[in-house]
């Protein structure tokens, strides 16, 4: 073929390409087109790619090549190219808009009928086939491949494929953009970029290099939960993970990444559905074309004129994940989502898809609703706590980098010694709190020389709260009101505010005239950002609070304990009453926060003050899941209720709907149908609450238990008789334990008026159950109740519903529900239906209580927001975990004496079942320490302690028959150990012999045995110690040691306090009661360090308590010049647990001079919190002696005290001190 013919062929192809391009443009712009338009556009675009490829092959190839013979046949007169050219020109004519008025009236309207479309599609398909065949006969490329130039062929193939993909993407971009606009997802890249800017190169290397992370990236269906305290750098670590995963997926287009940052500063990024929309949008952008499932969803919603339901979005997300070979999802700050239960439900559903292709990583604080929501989704090894030891290197790197690059700190860049001091001090004192280190560096900017720097480093605030308080305190008086006004607006704004908007805030003065004064506006808007460490200015001009912990501090009651300079300049801003309210949504407007509250003490009635004190005590029993400072939102509601009862000198009335019946699952969850140790502990816990109230208000309190078993038992196949037996057994426990003064019962049928007398027979009860349920719904049910609307609006209901769904899946496992379900999915749906029915009945039940018991403080066993009630765990667990109720689990006693709740199926391998009579009662951890060498029975006491008795079949046993060394080890963990019912010791020599089997008997001034008398005193004997008065809580180390000649040594082998002067003190004490009066004449009080720190940790982590010290001065006890730097808490290395070294002042009645005991280093608030807990019945065992009792006390585990002895007979107790 001659060159001229070749050029002519190429020109024909170019002309056809131009016409085809016009058609594609018109097809994309045309309005009101049927679905066939999309297919025509796709096919035309596909042909365009082939024609383009053909054009370049014709232009580049040699015209003499035999390959042209096939290609030339396409361009002959009347051939395929000419035929299609006529078709395409006709198509252009029909689609092209008119001009002038015609153009206005005919803007790209669809003018083709179905026959025309079908004919055009047929011609396009035929030409595509012919061009494709011609291209496959590429002799030139084939010869090159034979010569070994395979690489070039592959490269050209990839380039061609990429060009085709780009053309297709161009065609679909508009449609995809419409769908993305419809989804309206917030952009998480803004948060990601902000976090990236804050991190250093090696930040998070400890995690990226860990085995858990490597396994997460490679294992199918993997899930990691990273949790940590506020300010530990979770978001920074999330950005590190995102970057690493993006790099991991960069070279494989089949891998997909999506991430989301929940953000307290942006209301759109606090909604669970917005997260789903964002994930979908991100995955869609990584697809070569718009996913079919998205197109289908969009078109099903009238092409975007309607919004999809959350379930439809989840379904779309699932299909998109299944279309990827692997998908990585990273979600940061679950705790900053306002719809947390909905979010946890979403995460649970996503994780349970089990596609084998999904990897999820989530971060949050360790809050109990989050932990409970995902605990069954994440393996224990993949629940990773971001501990201070792990983050320290990240903090050190950050400090080092900022010292090098921050121009405000440049004065130290050439001072290696100063830089090292800053780095080491901040890294050490940060204790893993990244945010704390950031704030301290901000403050060090103002240190102009080395002495000032070192003074600042020596007086750094200890906590984030202390840091924020100091920042506020240092605001100059003339700027403080503006600063606090700005902070308040930032804390409660419904959306992020621009700098110019924030600048307008200070022009508003609600008490001024005029209220808006332009003269108050700062000429330079940046000047309003006075608290630079508390606020941040983003690159797009938004002003935000710098961290979630800042908002929490500003909105919490903790600020009331901050610097006194704040209220004098703050006053009441009244911002929420101004015309600036348009910046605040209705959901975010709140009553004045502690920032507005003047912290002066106002005059109030004594009854009001006492009511608030009682409610404060009740609140300490509560745990909620929303407000992180444990605020009881409904406290104000109950204050007048209790105040009225105080003025009438009545007992405070509490009501608790609970104790229905044991779970229907008697195989996996509970030990049987009757109450066991779990219920006994729960009742003791409630009784202790009432007794604690009686300590500050003489009439005390009562808890009325309203059993809800008959409300629900027909839904879970629990027999009516079982409900009766369970509740009657509860009443017997209350009587047997002596709780009846404080714990009462009432039945639903009594409140409904179906039964009037207090007593009811079994048959009467069973006959009324069915009628009771009907009457409950008839009187208090809402016929218009919308379950779905309720759980979407009421967070308490939503949380309760989530809890129901979880426990029902195990509760109903052996019922007809499970046996008749066709699949696991069907069974889960049944459980959801039962849960919904329970919610419906529960709303009627709650209404019954509200109407019939208006003067009661409402308690609840369900996690809640505490807006209408107070949630209390009946068997309190470790910090952050809301315990299971006793009727849904068994209680296990660990070897250290702590109680935990768990399902029986989780305990059999590590614990033994312990019986009470003939029925299983609780689990006890397997340990050789319970083998005491004799046949004995053990009774665990609440809140601490253990009674050891001879077994009924054992006959008379002496304590010398006990393995005292094993008893000693047990005493280190579970003090006090009481040996009761053994042969009575009447000789001191036998007592010393028994004591010597435990350890070395220490001699002291009274001799080896100290005799303690109550009531009658004999001053002629030097070994008589009268204790007929109140003895404060103390531990036997400091006081008395110098008087009795004990030698100086370190604390219990704790090397960290080797520099502190202390005295060798008895590790154990052994007592025996030789004679006593009747019980209740004077208890000995034992305070468990383990229990003390369990409840104290809600306020202060053990790590912060270990830094606290105290000092003592008392001339009578030989401590003339005072003991200083005494540790408040020391780690007992033998058991790896903390013990308390606090010592309350001795009364003047005991010695002639009063103790002078003070906390050091600003720790007064800590010691007050300890003193408040010392006699709390959750911590302190009140022990009544019986004749012959032998008691072993491990001084590392227990402090002790004594109540006044009021008996009419002598009480004599012997004591030996041991090492």
What does this protein look like?
This protein is α/β, with parallel strands linked by helices and 1219 residues long. The strands form 8 sheets. An 8-stranded mixed beta sheet has the order 18-19-20-32-24-34-21-22. Strands 2-3-4-1-5 form a 5-stranded parallel beta sheet, with helices on both faces. The protein is globular.
Task: Map the helices and strands.
Layout: H1 3-29, H2 36-60, H3 67-72, H4 80-95, H5 100-105, H6 114-136, H7 139-146, H8 150-183, H9 189-198, H10 205-208, H11 211-218, E1 222-227, H12 234-249, E2 255-261, H13 272-285, H14 292-300, H15 310-322, E3 326-332, H16 340-351, E4 358-364, H17 368-374, E5 383-385, H18 388-405, H19 416-430, H20 434-444, H21 450-458, H22 464-473, H23 477-492, E6 497-498, H24 499-505, E7 535-537, E8 542-545, H25 548-555, H26 565-570, H27 606-619, H28 635-647, E9 652-657, H29 677-696, E10 701-706, H30 709-712, H31 720-737, E11 743-746, H32 748-751, H33 762-780, H34 787-793, H35 795-811, H36 816-820, H37 824-852, E12 857-860, E13 870-871, E14 890-893, E15 899-902, E16 911-916, E17 919-925, E18 936-940, E19 946-950, H38 964-974, E20 977-979, H39 988-996, E21 1010-1014, E22 1024-1026, E23 1031-1034, E24 1068-1075, E25 1084-1088, H40 1089-1096, H41 1102-1105, E26 1109-1114, E27 1119-1127, E28 1129-1132, E29 1137-1140, E30 1156-1160, H42 1164-1174, E31 1180-1183, E32 1190-1194, E33 1198-1202, E34 1211-1218
Parallel strand pairs: 1-4, 1-5, 2-3, 3-4, 9-10, 9-12, 10-11, 12-13, 14-17, 19-20, 21-22
Antiparallel strand pairs: 6-8, 7-8, 14-15, 16-17, 18-19, 20-32, 21-34, 23-33, 24-32, 24-34, 25-31, 25-33, 26-27, 26-30, 28-29
């Amino acid at each position: 073929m001659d060159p001229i013919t070749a050029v002519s062929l190429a020109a024909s192809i170019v002309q056809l390409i131009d016409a085809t391009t016009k058609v594609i443009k018109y097809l994309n712009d045309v309005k009101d087109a049927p679905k066939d338009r999309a297919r025509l556009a796709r096919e035309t675009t596909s042909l365009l790619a082939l024609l383009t490829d053909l054009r370049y092959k014709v232009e580049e190839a040699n015209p003499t090549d035999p390959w042209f013979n096939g290609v030339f046949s396409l361009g002959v007169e009347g051939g395929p190219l000419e035929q299609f050219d006529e078709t395409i020109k006709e198509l252009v004519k029909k689609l092209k808009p008119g001009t002038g008025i015609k153009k206005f009236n005919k803007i790209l309207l669809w003018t083709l009928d179905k026959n025309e479309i079908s004919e055009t599609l047929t011609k396009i398909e035929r030409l595509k086939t012919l061009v494709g065949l011609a291209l496959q006969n590429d002799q030139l490329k084939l010869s090159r491949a034979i010569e070994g130039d395979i690489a070039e062929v592959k490269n050209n193939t990839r380039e061609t494929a990429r060009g085709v993909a780009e053309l297709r993407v161009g065609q679909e971009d508009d449609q995809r953009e419409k769908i993305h606009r419809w989804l309206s997802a917030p952009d998480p890249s803004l948060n990601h970029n902000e976090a990236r800017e804050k991190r250093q190169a090696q930040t998070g290397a400890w995690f990226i290099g860990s085995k858990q992370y490597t396994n997460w990236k490679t294992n199918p269906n993997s899930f990691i939960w990273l949790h940590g305290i506020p300010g530990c750098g979770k978001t920074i670590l999330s950005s590190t993970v995102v970057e690493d995963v993006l790099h991991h997926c960069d070279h494989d287009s089949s891998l997909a990444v999506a991430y989301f940052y929940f953000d307290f500063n942006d209301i759109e990024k606090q909604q669970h559905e917005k997260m789903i929309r964002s994930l979908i949008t991100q995955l869609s952008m990584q697809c070569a074309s718009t996913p079919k499932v998205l197109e289908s969803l969009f078109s099903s919603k009238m092409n975007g004129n309607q919004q999809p339901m959350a379930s439809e979005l989840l379904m779309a997300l699932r299909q998109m994940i299944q279309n990827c070979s692997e998908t990585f999802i990273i979600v940061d700050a679950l705790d900053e989502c306002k719809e947390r239960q909905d979010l946890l439900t979403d995460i649970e559903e996503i994780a349970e898809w089990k596609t084998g292709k999904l990897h999820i990583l989530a971060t949050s604080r360790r809050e109990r609703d989050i932990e409970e929501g995902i605990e069954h989704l994440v393996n224990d090894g993949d629940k990773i706590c971001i501990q201070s030891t792990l983050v320290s290197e990240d903090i050190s790197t950050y400090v080092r980098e900022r010292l090098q690059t921050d121009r405000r700190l440049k004065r130290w860049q050439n001072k290696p010694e100063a830089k090292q001091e800053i780095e080491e001090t901040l890294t050490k004192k940060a204790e893993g709190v990244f945010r704390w280190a950031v704030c301290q560096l901000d403050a060090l900017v103002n240190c102009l020389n080395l002495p000032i720097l070192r003074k600042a480093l020596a007086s750094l605030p200890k906590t984030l709260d202390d840091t924020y308080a100091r920042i506020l305190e240092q605001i100059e008086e003339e700027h403080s009101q503006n600063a606090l006004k700005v902070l308040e607006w930032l804390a409660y704004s419904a959306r992020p505010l621009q700098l110019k908007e924030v600048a307008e805030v200070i022009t508003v003065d609600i008490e001024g005239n005029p209220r808006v004064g332009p003269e108050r506006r700062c000429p330079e808007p940046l000047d309003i950002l006075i608290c630079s460490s508390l606020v941040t200015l983003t690159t797009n001009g938004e002003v935000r609070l710098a961290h979630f912990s800042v908002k929490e501090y500003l909105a919490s009651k903790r600020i009331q304990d901050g610097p006194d300079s704040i209220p004098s300049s703050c006053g009441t801003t009244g911002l929420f009453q101004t015309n600036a309210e348009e910046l605040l949504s209705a959901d975010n407007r709140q009553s004045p926060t502690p920032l507005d509250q003047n912290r002066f003490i106002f005059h109030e009635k004594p009854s009001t003050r006492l009511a608030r004190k009682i409610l404060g005590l009740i609140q300490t029993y509560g745990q909620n899941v929303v407000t992180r400072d444990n605020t009881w939102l409904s406290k104000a509601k109950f204050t007048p209720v209790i105040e009225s009862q105080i003025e009438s000198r009545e007992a405070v009335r509490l009501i608790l709907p609970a104790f229905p019946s044991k779970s229907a699952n008697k195989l996996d969850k509970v030990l049987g149908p009757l109450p066991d140790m779990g219920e006994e502990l729960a009742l003791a816990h409630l009784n202790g609450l009432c007794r604690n109230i009686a300590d500050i208000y003489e009439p005390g309190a009562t808890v009325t238990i309203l059993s809800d078993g008959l409300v629900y038992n027909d839904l879970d196949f629990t027999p009516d008789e079982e409900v009766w037996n369970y509740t009657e057994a509860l009443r017997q426990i209350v009587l047997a334990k002596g709780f009846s003064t404080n714990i009462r019962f009432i039945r639903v049928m009594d409140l409904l008026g179906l039964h009037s007398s207090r007593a009811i027979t079994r048959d009467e009860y069973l006959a009324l159950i069915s009628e009771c349920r009907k009457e409950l719904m008839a009187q208090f049910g809402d016929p218009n109740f919308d379950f779905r609307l309720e759980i979407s609006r009421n967070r308490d209901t939503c949380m309760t519903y989530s809890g129901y769904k979880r426990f029902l899946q195990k509760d109903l496992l052996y019922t007809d529900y499970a046996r008749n379900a066709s699949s696991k999915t069907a069974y889960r749906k049944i459980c959801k239906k039962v849960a919904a029915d329970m919610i419906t009945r529960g709303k009627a039940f709650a209404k019954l209580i509200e109407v019939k018991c208006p003067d009661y403080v409402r308690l609840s066993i369900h996690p809640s927001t505490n807006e209408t009630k107070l949630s209390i765990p009946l068997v309190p667990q470790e910090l952050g975990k809301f315990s299971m109720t006793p009727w849904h689990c068994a209680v296990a006693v660990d070897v250290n004496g702590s109680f935990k709740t768990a399902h029986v199926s989780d305990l059999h391998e590590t614990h033994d079942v312990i019986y009470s009579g003939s029925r299983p009662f609780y689990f006890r951890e397997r340990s050789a320490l319970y083998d005491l060498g004799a046949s004995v029975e053990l009774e665990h006491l609440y809140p601490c302690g253990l009674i050891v008795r001879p077994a009924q079949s054992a006959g008379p046993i002496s304590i010398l028959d006990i393995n005292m060394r094993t008893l000693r080890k047990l005493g280190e963990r579970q003090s006090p150990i009481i040996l009761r019912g053994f042969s009575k010791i009447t000789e001191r020599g036998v007592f010393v012999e028994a004591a010597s089997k435990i350890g070395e008997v220490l001699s002291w001034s009274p001799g080896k045995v100290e005799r303690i008398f109550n009531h009658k005193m004999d001053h002629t004997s030097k070994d008589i110690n009268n204790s007929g008065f109140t003895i404060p809580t103390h531990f036997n180390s400091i006081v008395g040691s110098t008087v009795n000649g004990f030698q100086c040594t370190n604390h219990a082998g704790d090397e960290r306090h080797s520099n502190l002067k202390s005295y060798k003190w008895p590790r154990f004490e052994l007592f025996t009661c030789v004679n006593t009066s009747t019980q209740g004449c004077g208890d000995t009080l034992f305070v468990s360090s383990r229990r003390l720190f369990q409840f104290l940790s809600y306020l202060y982590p053990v790590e912060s308590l270990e830094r606290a010290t105290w000092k003592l001065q008392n001339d009578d006890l030989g401590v003339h010049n005072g003991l200083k730097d005494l540790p408040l808490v020391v780690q007992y290395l033998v058991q790896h647990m903390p013990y308390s070294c606090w010592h309350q002042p001795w009364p003047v009645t005991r010695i002639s001079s009063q103790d002078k005991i003070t906390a050091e280093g600003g720790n007064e608030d800590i010691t007050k919190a300890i003193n408040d807990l010392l006699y709390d019945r959750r911590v302190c065992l009140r022990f009544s002696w019986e004749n012959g009792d032998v008691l072993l006390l491990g001084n590392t585990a227990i402090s002790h005290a004594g109540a006044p002895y009021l008996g009419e007979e002598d009480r004599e107790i012997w004591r030996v001190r041991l090492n």
